[in-house]
Amino acid sequence: MIDKIKGHIAEVERFNANTKDEIEAFRIQYLGKKGILNEFFAEFKNVPNEQKKEFGQVVNELKTVAQEKVNFLKEELEKTQEEKGVYGDLSRPAEPVEIGSRHPISIVRNQITEIFSNIGFNVSEGPEMEDDWHNFTALNLPEYHPARDMQDTFFIQTDPDILLRTHTSSVQVRYMEENKPPIRTISPGRVFRNEAISARSHCIFHQVEGLYIDKDVSFADLKQTILYFTKQLFGKSKIRLRPSYFPFTEPSAEVDVYWGLETETDYRITKGTGWLEIMGCGMVDPNVLRNCNIDPKEYSGFAFGMGIERIAMLLYQIEDIRMFYENDLRFLEQFKSAL
Ligand code: DAH
């Protein structure tokens, strides 16, 4: 009998409860009118005299531990309820965290700047609202130059001198005005053109400009730099430079990457040639250097410019440029990147 009571004491000591109901059920089980304790007390008269003393002691001990347990559990429960009031239920499972994804334009911009920063280019920026000098005149496009019509410009209200930059080449000018050669800089940014929106063109898009000015920079340096870039970004090592015209470079070229025909899903992409145009480039025109107070007899350099959307469309096989600006989560969630 005494062992049985001791077993109950051990059980009471182990007992734990998290709710009011559990504690109450426990209290009734031990301390209630028809509870275990009263059963033992009723048993007292049947206990042989020589055991009565010890029996009484253990039953009283059981009563004390049970009573203390009930009080202790009630206090604990009150405490956690107070905490819940401030912090909520601390034991509830965490809510799932939704991790956002970077916009594909940001991913590609970061990849491009990373590739060039590995060969010593820094990153520079300029304003989106520009003046005529930085966007046109200093870049060898004086007033009435026909090449100004190549890029339909948004002007700010009635002032013909203030406009939204039509290309990031304006940052070249700003950078050369403020820094002495050697210059190695990459300028990513948003540009604006008054163009009809279609699957292939938009009135707001992004470009990356590159500029390298030093002593004895040659066209071979330009070609190798671009080859390094296309290998890094596309994993393609066949490029060609087609003669072209830009007012700010002389000679000028357009760069094509050999993409091959294996992955061509749409005939319009390379028109069956396997070649894709990715950027414009050339040797910085001496007039541009002079406009930025750099002596063309001492220094030479190259520049290039590419559209980020175009590169992203090639990399991810996106067929409509408007997808970038619609903020459709089903589109955006597909892009995951550490960069
Ligand atoms: N600014 C040109 C455009 O928007 C791209 C470009 C071509 C930039 C040749 C350059 C360059 O720096 O050398 O179409």
TrEMBL record:
Classification via Pfam families: Phe_tRNA-synt_N (PF02912), tRNA-synt_2d (PF01409)
Cofactor: Mg(2+)
Enzyme class: ligase
Co-factor: note: Binds 2 magnesium ions per tetramer.
Keyword terms: Aminoacyl-tRNA synthetase, ATP-binding, Cytoplasm, Ligase, Magnesium, Metal-binding, Nucleotide-binding, Protein biosynthesis
Alphabetized GO MF terms: ATP binding; magnesium ion binding; phenylalanine-tRNA ligase activity; tRNA binding
UniProt keyword Zinc, yes or no: no
Residue ranges constituting the Aminoacyl-transfer RNA synthetases class-II family profile domain according to the UniProt record: 108-326
Subcellular location: Cytoplasm
Family, similarity comment: Belongs to the class-II aminoacyl-tRNA synthetase family. Phe-tRNA synthetase alpha subunit type 1 subfamily.
Protein name in the entry: Phenylalanine--tRNA ligase alpha subunit
Source species: Christiangramia crocea
Gene: pheS
